[in-house]
Amino acid sequence: MQKDIDILRKSLRHISDRVVTSEKLLIDSQILLEKIHSTIKQENKSLPIYQKFIHILSRESPYIYTNEARFPVTEKYIPWQVSFDLYDPTVISLPKQHDCFQDSERLFVEPDLDIEPSVTPMTDITTPLTDYKWNQVVESQLLDGKNIIIDRTTWIATSEDKISSVYRLDKQLSIPLNPMGRTGVRGRGALIRWGPNKSIMAVITRWKKHHDQFTVIDGQRILETLVFEDKYTSGWKLPEAKILGVESPYGVICRNFHEFALKDSDFEHSFSFEEGDMIEYFESFARASISTFEPTGFKSHMVYRGYIDDLRNTDNAWVEAEIWNFHYDSNIPFPNLRQDGVAIWKDVTNSSRGFLIQTSILREIARIHQAFFE
């Protein structure tokens, strides 16, 4: 009798394991179908750009820089308003010593708030958890006396009217909740700050040429964009300036471009370096090879500002960006561009691979210039 019971229990365990495996396969298949659906949705030209940002990269598993699997989240359960009792994501907050952070960023990497919930060191400041001013901009000081402006507001707009929203806080932990919904991972992840992590990004474009002739497909010219190798992901990244609050982000984007593209660290800017100064900096490359009185063939346009679907996003920390397009009609700019393979020009088309940016952004830039994209 006991032997029969043991056999029955063993059979039930096997059945249970198979059910769990089948459920996991079903969820994985559903997420794959949602990725395909998202790709189709991003190609819908009639949709406003803010509606094309769905959690796809933000649910990619395992979590970037780790072997930790994200908790599977289907599209139905992304919104916080939808009850998900089984939701039990792992907590990831990479330490400031991790290779994903640059040396200049480590000072600003915020600690895991779960480690010491009462008092936690924030950069070189000791700040009680209750003093984190969510949805606010505050000014403070580092130990060396430098001012730091910490912007914890969001650029995410609730509709096309571009009115920024206010993100919610976790009711138990009083930490930010990703406004776009669940990601399958809790914590700060591989990001510097809890809540929004803002940056300025530059998409630098020109017309692709072959033997001094424009490359044309279906009667439309093809754009190229300047990208830099990302040694950690083996992908290609755009010039970017993270807004840390100790210097002008518009100045940082110019300095970063100077260092990455031209291998020249001799670039100075003040905290008052503004949007117009950034535009003038990039326009100077078009002006360098022509008469002052001739048109430069340079155009600048802010393409997007808001949420970015990023591999690093978590339930409590996410990426936002202000994305600019600087376009050159001439191929003459950047005569001192480095030639070691770190900076290259890549086609801006739907078939382009390896960009750490959403396809919908590239599509919008191609639309602005009436360039080929499909």
Automatic annotation (TrEMBL):
GO terms for molecular function: ADP-ribose diphosphatase activity. Pfam families: NUDT9_N. It comes from the Eukaryota. PANTHER family: NUDIX HYDROLASE, NUDIX HYDROLASE DOMAIN-CONTAINING PROTEIN. This is Uncharacterized protein. It comes from Rotaria sordida.
